[in-house]
Amino acid sequence: MDRRDFLDLDTHDRATLRRMLDAAKAFKAGTPPTAESKPLAGKTLALIFEKPSTRTRVSFEVGMLQLGGDVIVLERESSQLGRGETVADTARVLSRYVDIIMLRTTKVEKLMEMVEHATVPVVNGLTDRTHPCQVMADVMTVEQHLGPIAGKRVAWCGDGNNMATTWIHAAVRFDFELRLACPDQLHPPAGALAWARAQGGRVSVDADLSSAVSGADVVVTDTWVSMGDEPGIVRDNLLRPFQVDDRVMAAAGPNAIFLHCLPAHRGQEVTASVIDGPRSVVWDEAENRLHAQKGILMWCLGKI
Ligand code: CP
Ligand code: NVA
Predict the structure, then answer these.
(1) Hey, whose CA ends up nearest to atom 7 of ligand 2?
(2) What are phi and psi of 70, to 5 degrees?
(3) Distance, CA 1 to ligand 1 centroid (Å)?
C-alpha cells in the first residue's frame, strides 16, 4: 500500500474522501466501520503544533484514544523545533517512534518538508494555505442538517484565507456551488480558483455579499485575522462590510444554516445573534471534527 498522507482535499479523489466521511458518519452513529473495537491499538499519533489550537488538539487526541491508539503532543516552544531544529530532521526522528504525524504549521512549505522526510503518513492540521480536517467536518455537518451537499449553494463571507481555499477544493470534490464574497484585496489565491475552474467547479468570487448569500443553503465565515496575519484597522475596515448578521442570514435560503470553524469573534465576523441563534450549527461542527478525523486516521492507517 502506498503511504497515505492526508494533505488537502484537492489531492484526493472524491471516492476516497467519501470513504473517510462514511467512516466518520458510522463512528458518529455508533456503528463503527470495522468489527475491531480498538482498530488502532498499538499505533501512536504525534501531534505537532507550531500554532495554538483547542479543537484540533483535543479532537485528535480523544479520537485516537477512542480508536485504541496513543498520542504524543509536541509544541514548538517546548521542543527543539523552537530552537531551530529543522522540520526535516524532526520528521526523520519521529518516524522512528510513531506511526502517523499530524502537523499544524505556519507555512505550507514546512508541511511539504515533513512529507518529504517522514516515512509515516502525515496529516495537515492547518497551514497558512489550507485546513482540510476542518472542512471534512464542515461537509459532514452540512449533510447532517441538510442531506447530501451535492447541488447545494454555499456562501463564504469575508477573508479569502486558508479556510476559503479549502472550501474551494471541497466545492469541486463534493460537487456544490460556492459563492465567495471577499474584499478585492483579500481574494483567495488565484491558483486555487484557477484549479477549481479547470475542474469545472461552480466557484465564483466577488465583493457582492448580498448576491453571494442570496438563496444560499449554507453561510460560512471565519476570523478576520488568521494566525500569522497582521491585525489592524485597515484589515478590519476591509472586512467589516462582510460581517454575517441577521440581515445577511435573512437574505439566505429559508432553511440556511450558519457555519464557523471557531474560534469566533462576536461583533466582528459574526454577530452574537447569528452564532448563538437558531440557524447556527457551530457546536455540531466542532463535534464533527472528532468523528471526521477518526475517519481520516482510519484511512491513513489502512483500516478502511
Ligand atoms: N477550528 C480549529 O481548527 O480550531 P483550533 O484552532 O482550536 O484547533
Ligand atoms: N483561518 C483561521 C482558522 C483557525 C482554525 C486561522 O488560520 O487562524
Answers:
(1) 226
(2) -115, 160
(3) 31
pLDDT tens for each residue of 164-194: 999 999 999 999 999 999 999 999 999 999 9
d(CA 121, CA 94): 11
pLDDT of residue 285: 99
Active-site entry in 222, 243, 291, 293: 222
Annotated catalytic residue 199: no
131 catalytic? Reply is yes
pLDDT for residue 1 is more than 90:
no
